[in-house]
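Field notebook, page 241. I keep forgetting to write these up properly, so this time I am using the form the group agreed on. The chain and the ligand, zinc ion, are recorded exactly as supplied. Prediction of the bound pose follows.
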Amino acid sequence: MQIKADLHTHTIASTHAYSTVQEMTAAAAETGLELLAVTDHGIGSPDAPHRWHFHNYKILPRKINGVWLLKGVEANIMDEDGTLDMNEHELSFCEWVIASYHTSCVTFERTPELILQGYRGACENPSVDVIGHPTTDYFPIEHEAAVRLFKESGKLVELNESSICWKPGAMKNAYSFYRLCRDYAVPLVVNTDAHFSEQVGKTPAAAKLLDELNYPRDLIVNLDAARVMEMAAKKRGIVFA
Ligand SMILES: [Zn+2]
Ligand SMILES: [Zn+2]
């Protein structure tokens, strides 16, 4: 399984990541990707770029090193109502929006009920495209309720290579969570969450998991870059030319 669009990556704009846009796109080209989304952290994160990082996205070309570029953000879900750290104005500069929980950004008590309530709020935000890395033990959820919510919301759900490899509980939880996603026919995006160029486009752990679950290939949206580009064109009028 080789993804053709990596839709969750970080650049040196987040200082705990180590590669530039040039290096990330060059690595994407080398891996055979057609599309890359750069999605540095939303402004509520302790290691976020300044808001001007997003405001100035217009100067970046649509294609770099032969790879189409989506200029995005990994926004933080900040509370149990699903408020994002990027308001409507900030999000208007972004072409691809992931909504994720991170422990550094929330202060509410992380019960499964409140976490799900936050996801519900994020799902109601029309700017959000993807729910990011939903299976860590840091944010425990009741799997079936969450999968039903995501399915009904029409948001894409992420299977995140870095998360399942590095975060507590994420791999174990993933088997149960993505099995339910399969049963409810939830469309996925499989992303690296690369923080270094060498990681771009490589998702062996996710591929193994999806093989074992026999996940239908037509539900893995970013196996086909054109499909993602069509979504971005339809939703935000992005022209890939
Ligand atoms: Zn994240
Ligand atoms: Zn990330």
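OBSERVATIONS:
- Residues 59 and 144 are 42 Å apart (CA to CA).
- The chain has one domain: 5-236.
FOLLOW-UP: compare against the apo run.
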